[in-house]
Design brief:
Blueprint (H helix, E strand, L loop, with lengths): L1 H30 L4 H4 L5 H19 L7 H20 L6 E2 L2 E2 L1
Antiparallel strand pairs: 1-2
Helix pairs in contact: 1-3, 1-4, 3-4
Protein name: DUF2516 domain-containing protein
Organism: Marinactinospora thermotolerans DSM 45154
Keywords: Membrane, Transmembrane, Transmembrane helix
Length: 103
């Protein structure tokens, strides 16, 4: 019985971590200018905000205990955004910055 409650708590912590990750990715996508996405040959801002918004809602439902079936997809979408798209679009709009920082 103790092992069951431990694993239940562990999954809650994992779902909470996924929710925080997707929420952070959503906030970063909303803050990024729309012109930066096509400039770096990425999908549109609207698509990323929609995907990350849906992922945030799915991961929130997992934290609240309503189902966790598609939560892994939420994590995958947010990691793609945070590890691939965000670094590319962050480099747009900062004049004078080189590849390793300001000149």
């Amino acid at each position: 019985m103790v092992a069951l409650s431990f694993f239940s708590l562990l999954w809650k912590v994992i779902y909470l971590a996924i929710f925080v990750t997707t929420l952070y990715a959503l906030v970063e996508a909303v803050r990024t200018p729309a012109q930066a996405f096509p400039a770096m040959d990425k999908q549109t801002k609207g698509l990323w905000v929609g995907l990350l918004g849906a992922g945030t809602l799915l991961s929130l439902s997992a934290v609240l205990g309503y189902g966790a079936f598609l939560t892994i997809l939420s994590l995958i979408v947010s990691l793609i955004y945070l590890l691939d798209v965000r670094p590319a679009v962050k480099s747009i709009g900062r004049p004078g910055d080189g590849p390793y920082g300001p000149w």
